[in-house]
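Here is an idea for our session: we take a single protein and study its fold together. Which protein we use is up to you, so please pick one and set it down. Once you have written the record down, we can walk along the chain together:
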Amino acid sequence: MPNFGDLIGALLKSGTAPSTGNRMGNALENLQRQGLGEAGGGLLDGILGAVKGGLGSMAENPAAAGGIGAVLGSLVGGGGDSVKGALGGGALAMLAGVAMKALMNSGQAEGSNAFSGGAAPLGLKPPETPDQEQALEQKASLMVKAMINAAKADGEIGPDEMQRIVGKLREAGTDDETRQWVMMEMSKPLDLDAFVAEIPSPEAAAEVYGASLLAIEVDTDAERRYLQQFVQSTGLNPAVVQYINQTMGVA
């Protein structure tokens, strides 16, 4: 099976949506302002530190380079092969942090296993046991499927687009098994009910919603309908959805 954390980074580098970098940047800046930048060993500092080799002076001084969104925008679709792991880990951390804050602000985090005792969820904090490593990998696989399914919202992914994505994945250093897995997932008809059945909790649903926003521009009726159907099918609280949209800079 693929390394799904790296695959997230490779998919982001493949050029998922023009606004992806800005959305990640908006979310990271908001999380930093709300005090989550220090969670999990320094979320923002860790991401920028990990990609300095691929971004040079932009990562050293993101403000001068146009903000965190501009730095991540340069990383998405660029940078060296080595940054895909940092980008994937950064995306997982960002999605976990945004979901946690969205559920906390809506009052839904109380009693949650993921957020009990104020602990940061997996993704925002590193795994500490083999079971947690497996759980984080399962979460990453769900985020990859979310991105691929969102890309199908306008219809099936055509052969030309599929070949473009696979070519970008090859450039990002993915192996044959990973590319074959992605092609298989992209070739499947969109089945929202089956996908929703894989989502184990409201916390995961909030993260999946955020991952979907990284894959599409949300500028067509089909994409908007897909997100609305996802929200209805998972029962996501409208306040959670609104927070995620605002945090990631989606109108």
